[in-house]
Amino acid sequence: MIRDVVGLKVLFRRDRLTGQVAAGLVGVLVIAAGVYGVGVASAKYRIADVGAWLTARDKGVVVHVNGPAGKVDGKTGVIPQMRGHDIKIVQDGATVLIIDLHTGVVSRLDPSQLDIGASRALGKGIQVLAEAGKAYTVDSVKGVVQQIDPVGLTPVGAPATLPPVLGQAGIDAQGTLWVPVSRDGQVSAFKDGRLRPPVRVGGAGDSLALTIAGGDPVVTDSTAATATVIKPSGARLTVSLPTTVREAGRGGVLAPPATEGKTVPLLVPGTGSLVTVDTDTGRYSSARLAMPKHRYRPPQMLGAKVYIPDETAGALIVYDSAGNRFEPPVPVTGRPAPLDVFVRDGLLWANDPTGPRAVVIDGQGGHKAIDKYKDRVAGGPKRRTLPLPGGDAPPPSMSPQSPQPPAPPRPGQPPGAPANVSVTPGAGTMRIDFQPSQGDGITGYVLKDVPSGLTASPSAIPQGAGPFTFTVAGGDCGREYRFRVAVRYRDARGRTREQVSAASDPVRPCVTPGAPTGLKAQATTSGAKVSWTAPPGAATYRLNWDGPAQGSTTVSATAATLGNVWTNGSYTFTVAAVNDAGAGTTATLTSGLAGPTHDYAVRMNGNSDGYIRSTPDANNGAIIATMHDNNGEKVVVHCQEKGAHYTHPRDSNLTGDTYAKITWQGKTGYVIGYLVSTPGDWNGYAGPAVWRCA
User: Fold this and answer.
1) Is 507 exposed, middle or buried (0-12, 13-18, 19+ CB in 10 A)?
2) Which residue has the higher pLDDT, 30 or 293?
3) Which CATH number is correct for 517-593, 3.40.50.2300, 3.60.40.10, 2.60.40.420, 2.60.40.10?
């Protein structure tokens, strides 16, 4: 049974969680959990490895549901002050955090004991995340990010500050926190108390949405209609999405916070545009779906099916992207209600956090309804119904407004127009898929709106022939195209008629190019020369370099000479192929460069001594060798460097602080610049003809 609360000690003190942790509830709350069929609460309680924790606000409980069985196998009461509040659960293996969204109090649940452990008042509106063994908090308003201990909920390391307001954050497969910074059009990474250099993913003020897809961060910029994938190596892939993405408005597209696979589904509210992006290849498909004006939550993907939470209907809209068709919706509540939908361990969960209903769906699309107020596991020991008042809720019913597979027209009615016209870009092609019509007298289908100079194959699709796909060849990568599909049929008088679909989403006849190969860099007297081999589909190249010198440029050739790179040292070069479909995955090369050596004649050393020193200091550097009366003799010049300022004691015109590093008679060291006939003024660098020393 559930034990009574036996104590609650509240301490007020100054917290170290810089700007995030309010003075409030601290330490361990002595609140026991209800453990049914096991005995005392201190006993170890085994729950299913494949399952999820779900909330039920009206009863103030948190339950664990066995995924394959779709039944409750564990339950705990929440902190009494949380009853009736909106509760969020963050779960990562043994880390289960219960977040009161009304008060900002975060509590840790021990799954083995079903006990509420440490609790902390982190502040209302604070994001709390746990994944890959790490936990973080994000204060979106103040811009403060902080790693925390997932057990004690105490700060770990130093916090960091970013420009607010911050977007929804996520944790990648390496345990790094990624945070969208819309003000700067960037996404920042934070780990071990240190911010990494930000990654630009859009323009300043753009609407950004972060998804952790298969462990990698993906940022969708609704303002620019792009999606940027950041690989663990640091390589980036940027995909140009259909311009309909910009129609999402101020709130941007609906994007899931995480996906288990590499495909990210995006829903444009109000238009019904559904875009699925393959973050490995940079290719996407886009469908314009006929959807009612309901309140939707971000879509989720499991296998080839996209599940769109419809909070108005209390159901999941199911779209089979492989078959390009709607399937019957999955009812959750059957009434307007909030829906918490996520994918975990190969199962999709849809929970009504306010009531008893939830649904679990497997990878084949099979689903089980869940009653969170019962705890009977199929095949397990018999358990009694949890003693909660209110009885069972009636089974959910489906709203008639939810999208359903189209019903065939009645006899004598014309067939409906083809549905679900989807488009997929290709290399020089565009694929158009559609759902065929139903009805009598259908003879086939033709593609509409094919511009002059482009060809559609096949020219027509006979009824029942399938697959229901047209391929258009040709077109300009810099242009978007829209298509319609018409069904042709014979009416009662034998005349040929057409019913035409709505226009598709826009599509380009090109795909994001691949990564350049064979990236090389070498030092020349004109600067660093970088070259590579072109991938198919490239139009231009975006080249960046970092090291003793930094910069970027866009070129159309497969090589570039960087006139400002003439300092010895280690450089990292990245190059991405770009066309109107986006920027392909970057190729990266880290290389140590040293400028080429040249022979230059000695000067200003007639009947005098020229000293080669160990450092660029003609005043105090240790003398390695002395050159005497050797004007015109050639020495090997390696590089130049600034050093101590020197003025010749007998000629004030011989003055400067630039030194040449030379080799003379097997001795290597520095001489004051006026002793060697390098190009240019001896008071300045000759680069890139002579590189600067490291």
Assistant:
1) buried
2) 293
3) 2.60.40.10
